[in-house]
Amino acid sequence: MYRHFLKPPPLSRLAMLLFVIVPVASWVLVKPVRVLAPTLAGVTCPTSVICLDDVAQLGAAADLYAEGTAFVAARVGAFGHAPRVIFCASEACAASFGLGERSAVTVGTIGTVIGPRAWKPYYLRHELIHQLQAENLGTIGVLLKPSWFVEGMAYALSDDPRAVLAAPWQGYRAQFNAWNAGNSLPRLWALAKDL
Ligand SMILES: [Zn+2]
Asked: Distance, CA 22 to ligand 1 centroid (Å)?
C-alpha cells in the first residue's frame, strides 16, 4: 500500500502527461517553434531568408528585408548569420505564429515574424536588432538583460519616428539613449555584457 503511493500507477502518470504536461508544453513551445519550420505553418519560403503567406507581396517583403538588414548592419553591427524573416500579410498567419496583440515577434536568432501591421522599415529594423542582440549576447543572455536596454536599444537604434512612445517604452528609450551617449559600436556590445 505504502509503495503504491510512492510510485504512481502507469495510468495516472499517463493522465498527468496528457492533461497537464502536453497542453502546457504545446502552449509554451509549439507556436514559437513554428518559426523553425515555417512551411509547416502554411507560409512559403521563396528564398532561404524570406517566408510569407502572400507570395504576391514578395517584392515589398524583399525591399523591406534589404533596407532593414543594411540599416541594422551599418548602425548596430554586422550579422554573423543571415536573419530569417516571416512576413504575414494576414491576421490568420500572425495568429498561427502566436503573435496575439504583438505587431511582430523575434525568437532568438531563429527568426522574426512580422505581422500585418508591422510592414514598416522601423518595425523590421527593431526586430532585426533583437536578432542581433541574441547573436551578440546569447538568447538566454538577452533575457537576463534589463528591459530598458533590450527594448530601449531596439526603439532608439531602429530610428523609430514616433516622438512619444507608450509607457514603458518611452522611458526605456530615454534610459538607453542616456546610457549610450558617446558609446561607439564595439564598446556598446562590450558594455552591454556587463549590464
Ligand atoms: Zn522589441
From this structure: 29
CA angle 69, 158, 165 (to 5 degrees): 150
Domain assignment of residue 10, yes or no: no
Q: What is the pTM of this model?
A: 0.82
- Residue 136 falls within a domain, yes or no? yes
The answer to the question of residue 130 being in a domain is yes
Number of domains in the chain: 1
Q: Identify whether 1 is part of a domain.
A: no
The answer to whether 131 and 109 are in contact (CB under 8 A) is yes
Which structural domain range is residue 144 located in?
35-193
* 43 C-alpha to ligand 1 centroid (Å): 23
- Tens of pLDDT along 119-162? 999 999 999 999 999 999 998 899 999 999 999 999 999 999 99
Residue 46 CA to ligand 1 centre (angstroms): 26
